[in-house]
Amino acid sequence: MHEHRAGMLLLQRCLGAVAGLQVDLHVDGWVRSDAALLEADAIALFADGGQAHPFLTGKRLAALGTRVAAGIGLGCMHFAVDIPVERGAAELKAWIGGHYQAGVSCNPIWLARFDQLPEHPITRGVRPFETNDEWYFAIQFADGYGGTGPTSTAAGTFWPILCATPSNEVRAGPYVYPKGPYPHILAQAGRPEIVMWALERSDGGRAFGLTGGHFHDNWANGDFRKVVLNALVWIADATVPPDGVASSLAPHELDQDLDPAGPA
Asked: Cα–Cα distance between 152 and 135 in angstroms, integer?
């Protein structure tokens, strides 16, 4: 289940050996100070989204927009790609290339197999892999984005990073919420779906979106972990090593920093 803090602490530890990269962790969905926002080369958000999306609180959307216009990198993971269409969706679509739209996108739990990986710094050292996760798909991409290969527009260059083809049974649901099935999802049977993507914006900033990340135990998958670590390095405009970001994870490390269990 969602373990945002534990997941980010794990990724922070894994990035500790990357030369020249300083990784600061801020909890509760936002930076601790205005100075931190101004000093950051990139921001990655792993948090609840939808109506509770952290970017929608107060003047955060405007503050982040100023930094994005200046070329800051931005990554959104799992629920954080879900933002209301009436507020925030246009910004997120411009900033990272796409977003989850409730009732249009869908969120089944399914085994996604990534057999073919594109050539991109984010995929360096990543081997074909599979994970069972709440892989959202039918993401609403900005105009000109969302194809099976890299595409360029006046706004930037888009790359599909992880693509998998849901079975007809997956398309038929149930989805996590609302349960579905949705007729338009059924009608797209056989279509590969983009579940992770990258964007290099015309302002010079880099971004990525990742729809998986529901199950904390998936960080034990070295290739899943590597593709996310590579993405975090890439959006900071740092150099991704030729074989990707190396990391190891002992079994006990996966269970560190978990949120306290709620009542049974």
From this structure: 25
| Tokens linked to 170 | 């997956």
Which amino acid belongs to residue 152?
A: S
pLDDT for 78-122, tens place per residue?
A: 999 999 999 999 999 999 999 999 999 999 999 999 999 999 999
- Would 231 be classed as within a structural domain? yes
User: Domain range holding 56?
Assistant: 4-254
The whole-angstrom separation of Cα 56 and Cα 219 is: 28
Residue 261 has pLDDT above 70, yes or no: no
CA distance 234 to 199: 11
Q: What is the tally of structural domains in the chain?
A: 1
Task: Residue 196: name the closest of 83, 120, 86 by CA.
Answer: 120
User: Who contacts 9 (Cβ-Cβ below 8 Å, separation ≥6)?
Assistant: 25, 256, 257
Q: Please list, in sequence order, all residues whose beta carbon lies within 8 angstroms of the beta carbon of residue 116, skipping any fewer than 6 positions away.
A: 128, 163
CATH value at residue 122: 3.40.50.880
Helices 89-96 and 60-69 pack at an angle, to 10 degrees, of 20
Q: What angle do CA 65, 118, 139 make, to 5 degrees?
A: 45
CA distance linking residue 81 with residue 254, whole number of Å: 24
Of 227, 242, 246, 230, whose CA–CA distance to 112 is shortest?
A: 227
What residue spans of 130-250 are helical by DSSP H? Answer: 168-171, 183-186, 222-235
Host H or E run for residue 197 = strand 193-201
Question: Which residues have CB under 8 Å from 238's CB, separation 6+?
Answer: 18, 20, 21
Residues 6+ positions from 90 with CB-CB distance below 8 Å: none
